[in-house]
Specification:
Blueprint: H1 3-7, H2 12-45, H3 55-104, E1 107-111, E2 117-121, H4 130-164, H5 178-195, H6 204-217, H7 221-231, H8 233-246, H9 255-274, H10 279-291, H11 305-312, H12 320-337, H13 369-378, H14 381-387, H15 406-414, H16 431-445, H17 470-483, H18 488-494, H19 499-508, H20 510-517, H21 542-552, H22 556-576, H23 582-614, H24 618-627, H25 631-636, E3 639-641, E4 644-648, E5 657-661, H26 669-680, H27 688-691, H28 696-715, H29 719-727, H30 730-739
Antiparallel strand pairs: 1-2, 3-4, 4-5
Helix pairs in contact: 2-3, 3-4, 4-5, 5-6, 5-7, 6-9, 7-9, 10-12, 11-13, 12-13, 12-14, 13-16, 14-16, 16-17, 16-19, 19-22, 20-21, 21-23, 22-23, 22-26, 23-24, 23-28, 23-30, 28-30
Length: 756
C-alpha cells in the first residue's frame, strides 16, 4: 500500500460496493426463503410422472439450494468488503494523524516515485535528536502502511478464493468477517508448511499443532482447499502415511489417540476440500486418482496411494463426482489384481504391507483400500446410488443378472475378501463386507449409514424424513434380486457381516415389499392399500419380494429388524384407515392380510433355518427359535417422525438406526399403544431361560397372537364392523395368510434354508 494512495484514498466506490452487496444480501435472503418454502416444497409435494418424477424434482431441489448458497456467498463478500473498507478508512485516519504528529516534530513525510516515502527534518539547524524523530515517524507510518497492505491483500486473496470455490453456481462458504476468512487461509498455509517436513523429524508438539489446527478448521472450505492444494496430492498422502509409520514399533501411550485424531481430522478436511469446484481442486482430485496404484516412499516401497487415500476418506463427506471417478479407477485396478487371490495369495492384505493406516477399527487395519472407499460411499448416499446404478431394466423391475450393476455384482458375488484385523481384532469378521453393507444402506435409504435423524448436531444430517427416490429404489431392486436369488441363502450365510445392513434395507422398503406381495401375482394391486410415499417406488415383483423376505428371515438379525418394521408399518396402516367406511375397512383388511403373509414368510424362514442349523438337536433349535421373538426389543425404541420410524437397534449407538416407513407423520392410537405396551408390559425383557425352550409351534403361536392383537385393536371400538369382520371370517383369512406362506408350504413361496 503506497503512502500517497492511502493518504488520498477515495472510498466512494467501496462504499457503493458495500451498499450494493448489502442490498443483494437482503434480496437473496428473500429469494432463498421463497425458493425453500415455495419452489422446493411445491416440487416435493407435486405428483411428478415419468422422468419428471426423478430428474425435474432433483433439479428443482438443487436450484432452490443454489439460492441458499448465493445468499451465503453474497453475505460473506459483503462482510469482507465492509470490514476491509472500515479498516482502510481507519488506517487512512491513522496515517494522516501520524503525518501530522511528525510535522509537529518538524518532520516532513512525502511519497516518492515507485511507491515509497521519505521523511526529513524541515527546520534549520537540525535538532540534536533529528535521527530519533525521523526513525520514530518512519516506524509508525511504515507499520500503518504494512497493516493496510495486509488488510487489502488478504481481502483480495479471500475474495478470489471464495469466487473460485465454484466455477458454476455458488459455494456454501460463509464468513462473518474478513479476519475469519483470512485467518483460515493463513492457518492453512502454516500447517501445510509444517506438514511438508520429513515425518521422522516432525516433533510430537508439531504433530499435535497440525492436529488441533485441522480439528478447528476441518469444515472451513477456504482452509480445506488451501491446505490440500498447498500440501499437494502426493504430499498429502506422504504426510499421513509417513506420520503413521514414524511412530510404529515404538512405545508411546498417546500415539494411537494422536493418529486416530489425525486420520479423522485430515479425512474430514480433505472431504471438505473436494466439495470445492475450483480448478486447483479439480487438478488435485485428478492427481490423487491417477496416483492410485503407485507406491509412496523414496524407494517406492511404501503403501500404494489407493490404500492411504481410502483410509482418509473413511471420515468426511466427499464430493460425489470425485468419489465415483476414484471408485471406478480403484475397482478397475482391483479387478486386475484380484486374480492373484485365486491362488490364495491376497494382493492387498499380505505380509509385504504391514503398516496400520486405519486406527479406528480393531477388525480393519486398513490394508484393503476397497473397504475405506466403501465407508466413504456410506457417508454419501448420492455417490453410492450413482456408483451402483443399474445399467437398465427391461421391464417393471430387476429380474435378470444383466440388469445388475457390474460394481455391485463384483463386490457381492465375485471379489475375494480377506479379514484384516489387528492382533486384538476378530479374525472371523470381514470388515470389508461390513463396509459394503454401509455403502448399500446409504445408496438405498438416502441416509448416511451412521445417520442419527433425531440429532441436528451432525452437519451431514439436516433432518429426518423419507429420502428414498427412484435412484435409491433402483439400487434396492438390485439388492433384493441378488440376495433373493437362488444363491441368496448361501450369500447371506457366507456374508454374515451384511445381515444387519440387509435388514435395514428391507425395513426401509417394507411398504414397497408389501405392495409387491399384494394382489394376484403381479396384477390387481390396489394403489390405496400401500400408497407410494415417493416417486418411482421400488417394484420387486411378487415372487421377488417373497424370495427376498424368505432369505432375510434366515438370519436372526435381519429377521428381527424386518419383522419389527413390518409390524410397525401394518399398525400404522390400521391407524391410517379407521373403520369409518367400506373403503377404509377394505384397506385395513388388505393391510392385515399382506402383513400376515410377510410375517409368515419371515417367521417360517427363521424356523426352517434354525432347524437346519441345529442338525437334529432339538434343544439347540429351540434356543435359536426363541431369539426370533427379540424383534420386539427392536421395535420398542422406535420414534415416529416425518413419515418414518427411526428404530435404534438394542445395544448399539446411533450408528445402528433402522429407518422404516409408516403411513403417517406421527404414531396413531394403535401404533402408539403398541409402542407403549412393548416397553411397559415387559415384553422386551422376558425371561431368557423360559424363552430358551420355545418350540416352533410356540413361536408361530406368538406370531399369530401379534396379528390377533392388531386385529382386535382395530375393531375394539366398532362392534358393528367387528360383527361384519367375524361374518366375513377375517380372523381365518389372516391366520391362513400367516401360516400358509413359506418354503415349507410350497417350493415357490420362498427360498429353502441354507445347508452346508
Amino acid at each position: 500500500m503506497n503512502l500517497e494512495d492511502l493518504r488520498h484514498a477515495n472510498f466512494k466506490l467501496l462504499d457503493d460496493a458495500v451498499t450494493d452487496w448489502s442490498t443483494m444480501v437482503e434480496n437473496l435472503k428473500d429469494l432463498e426463503e421463497s425458493a425453500t418454502k415455495g419452489l422446493r416444497n411445491a416440487a416435493q409435494k407435486a405428483d411428478w410422472q415419468g422422468l419428471n418424477a426423478n430428474v425435474s424434482r432433483i433439479f428443482v431441489g438443487k436450484t432452490a439450494g443454489e439460492f441458499g448458497d448465493a445468499h451465503k456467498q453474497a453475505d460473506s463478500i459483503r462482510n469482507i468488503l465492509r470490514d476491509t473498507r472500515d479498516e482502510l478508512k481507519d488506517y487512512k485516519r491513522q496515517l494522516i494523524e501520524a503525518i501530522d504528529r511528525a510535522w509537529e516534530k518538524k518532520v516532513s513525510v512525502y511519497g516518492v516515485a515507485g511507491g515509497g516515502f521519505e521523511a526529513m527534518i524541515n527546520v534549520h539547524p537540525e535538532p540534536k535528536d533529528a535521527k530519533l524523530r525521523i526513525d520514530t515517524a518512519v516506524k509508525e507510518i511504515q507499520g500503518i502502511l504494512e497493516k493496510a497492505t495486509e488488510s487489502d491483500s488478504s481481502a483480495a486473496k479471500v475474495l478470489k478464493a471464495i469466487a473460485e470455490q465454484s466455477q458454476l453456481g455458488f459455494s456454501d462458504a460463509s464468513y462473518k468477517d474478513r479476519d475469519a476468512a483470512a485467518d483460515a487461509v493463513k492457518k492453512a498455509d502454516e500447517l501445510a508448511k509444517l506438514a511438508k517436513k520429513d515425518p521422522d523429524e516432525l516433533t510430537k508438539t508439531e504433530l499435535n499443532a497440525i492436529n488441533s489446527g485441522l480439528a478447528k478448521y476441518r469444515n472451513d472450505p477456504l482452509f480445506a482447499e488451501e491446505f490440500a492444494t498447498k500440501l499437494g496430492p502426493k504430499g498429502t498422502l506422504e504426510f499421513y502415511s509417513g506420520a503413521a509409520a514414524a511412530g510404529a514399533g515404538t512405545y508411546d501411550p498417546d500415539r494411537l489417540q494422536t493418529m486416530k485424531q489425525l486420520q479423522k481430522n485430515l479425512g474430514i478436511t480433505l472431504g471438505t476440500a473436494t466439495r470445492s469446484d475450483s480448478m486447483a481442486m479439480d487438478k488435485w482430485e485428478s492427481s490423487i486418482t491417477s496416483l492410485g496404484e503407485k507406491r509412496l516412499g523414496e524407494y517406492e516401497d511404501g503403501p500404494r496411494s489407493f490404500v492411504v487415500m481410502s483410509n482418509l476418506m473413511r471420515f468426511g463427506d466427499y464430493d460425489t463426482d470425485f468419489l465415483t471417478s476414484y471408485g471406478d479407477r480403484l475397482l478397475e485396478f482391483d479387478k486386475q489384481v484380484d486374480t492373484d487371490s485365486h491362488s490364495g495369495t491376497p494382493f492387498w492384505v499380505n505380509n509385504h504391507d504391514q503398516s496400520n493406516l486405519n486406527f479406528w477399527d480393531k477388525n480393519d487395519r486398513g490394508r484393503d483400500p476397497v473397504s475405506g472407499f466403501l465407508q466413504a460411499l456410506g457417508h454419501n448416499p448420492e455417490a453410492s446410488a450413482q456408483f451402483f446404478q443399474s445399467p437398465g431394466v427391461d421391464g417393471d423391475y430387476v429380474d435378470k443378472e444383466s440388469e445388475v450393476n457390474e460394481n455391485l455384482k463384483y463386490l457381492t458375488k465375485e471379489r475375494h475378501w480377506y479379514e484384516d484385523p489387528t492382533f486384538e481384532g476378530d479374525r472371523d469378521v470381514m470388515a470389508g463386507r461390513d463396509a459394503l453393507g454401509h455403502a448399500l444402506e446409504a445408496a438405498t435409504t438416502g441416509y448416511a449409514y451412521d445417520a442419527d435423524p433425531m440429532s441436528a448436531k451432525d452437519p451431514m444430517i439436516p433432518g429426518s424424513g423419507d429420502r428414498r427416490t427412484e435412484a435409491t429404489a433402483d439400487v434396492m431392486e438390485q439388492v433384493a434380486y441378488l440376495y433373493g436369488s437362488e444363491d441368496g441363502p448361501k450369500m447371506l450365510h457366507d456374508q454374515p457381516e451384511m445381515a444387519d445392513s440387509l435388514g435395514k434395507m428391507g425395513a426401509a422398503y417394507i411398504d414397497d415389499i408389501d405392495h409387491s406381495i399384494s394382489g394376484f401375482g403381479d396384477q390387481s394391486k390396489d394403489a390405496g392399500d400401500f400408497p407410494s410415499q415417493y416417486p418411482g417406488r421400488a417394484n420387486f415383483g411378487e415372487q421377488g419380494a417373497i424370495d427376498f423376505l424368505s432369505v432375510l428371515g434366515q438370519n436372526e438379525t435381519s429377521h428381527n429388524t424386518v419383522t419389527a418394521a413390518q409390524h410397525l408399518y401394518t399398525l400404522s396402516l390400521l391407524d391410517a384407515h379407521p373403520p369409518t367406511n367400506a373403503d377404509q375397512i377394505d384397506h385395513a383388511r388388505d393391510a392385515l392380510n399382506v402383513g400376515a403373509q410377510a410375517r409368515g414368510i419371515l417367521d417360517n424362514a427363521y424356523v426352517e433355518q434354525a432347524t437346519a442349523d441345529a442338525e437334529g438337536d432339538a434343544d439347540e433349535a429351540n434356543k435359536a427359535i426363541a431369539k426370533g421373538d427379540d424383534w420386539k426389543k427392536v421395535a420398542a425404541g422406535a420414534v415416529i417422525a416425518g413419515g418414518i420410524a427411526a428404530i435404534p437397534l438394542p445395544g448399539s449407538t446411533a450408528a445402528a438406526i433402522v429407518f422404516a416407513p409408516v403411513a403417517a407423520d406421527t404414531a396413531g392410537e394403535i401404533l402408539g399403544t403398541f409402542l407403549g405396551h412393548s416397553i411397559d408390559d415387559g415384553a422386551a425383557e422376558e425371561d431368557p431361560t423360559a424363552k430358551a425352550q420355545m418350540t416352533s409351534a410356540e413361536f408361530y403361536g406368538k406370531g399369530a397372537g401379534d396379528l390377533g392383537t392388531a386385529y382386535s385393536s382395530y375393531l375394539k371400538d366398532h362392534p358393528e364392523v367387528a360383527r361384519t369382520a367375524d361374518h366375513e371370517d377375517w380372523k381365518q383369512r389372516v391366520e391362513d395368510a400367516y401360516y400358509g406362506t413359506g418354503s415349507h408350504k410350497n417350493e415357490y413361496r420362498g427360498r429353502a434354508p441354507y445347508e452346508d
